[in-house]
Amino acid sequence: MQRTIGGAVLELVQGDITLQEVDALFNAANSRLMGGGGVDGAIHRAGGPALLEACRQLAPCPTGEARLTTAGNLKAQYVIHAVGPIYQRDPANDAALLSSAYRSSLELASYHGIRRLAFPSLSTGAYGYPIDEAAPVALSTVITYLQQHPEIELVRFVLFDSRTFDAYQQALASLLKP
Ligand code: AR6
Fold first, then answer.
1. 3-class state of residue 9 by DSSP
2. Which of 107, 125, 167, 171 fits 38 for a cystine, CB–CB 3.0-4.6 Å?
């Protein structure tokens, strides 16, 4: 599924983010930036030791923020490590922190001249954020950013499983309903 927002393409695909040929991949990291399971584990395995060493120098990263590193052996040039919230650890701020993780990542991308980028679904795996609640927050944050930042050319959400892909498709359709 693909939509044009401002001058940018917003795309939803099902797949593995480590295989994407874009300028920057976004990682669903934890504050220690030391790798982990899920998409973080996959990105570190594919990126290799240079990625872990770069993370070590930038840790910690507070929830709702992001840090940029080399992409090591990945095809992308950079990895931007975004720390989404653990669902209901701070219930009043779940949506604000999730939105902030996406926005901070996009701000880093703009700052570094990154035009084509790929996101996973932050916080909806180990961090337990329900996909149906997270998808509209993720997409509306990205849409608002793209409307204000014509420098970004492509945002691709790379969604690992069909349930996540379907939830994002539904959320995007309802956000862009005329
Ligand atoms: N490509 C795209 N998406 C993926 C991939 C992949 N290769 N692998 C998993 N996903 P999670 P979180 C999806 O748990 O909830 C880690 O241990 C996955 O199916 O990776 O933000 C970190 O170190 C789900 O839809 O991230 C943190 O401690 C989505 O990515 C913690 O987990 C996010 O799931 C972060 O938890």
1. strand
2. 125
Spell out which residues line ligand 1, taking CB within 6 angstroms: 16-18, 28-30, 36-40, 42, 84, 120-127, 158, 160-161, 164
Q: How many CB atoms lie within 10 A of CB 102?
A: 25
94 is catalytic: no
Q: What pairs with residue 116 in β-bridges?
A: 154
pLDDT in tens, 116-133: 999 999 999 999 999 999
- Residue 164 Cα to ligand 1 middle (Å): 12
Which tokens in the block code for residue 24? 């920057």
Query: In angstroms, what is the span from residue 34 Cα to ligand 1's centroid?
Result: 14
Taking only the tens place, the pLDDT of each residue in 54-74 is 999 999 999 999 999 999 999
Mean predicted confidence (pLDDT) in 99-119: 98
d(CA 154, CA 11): 8
CATH superfamily of 2-175: Leucine Aminopeptidase, subunit E, domain 1 (3.40.220.10)
* DSSP symbol at 74: S
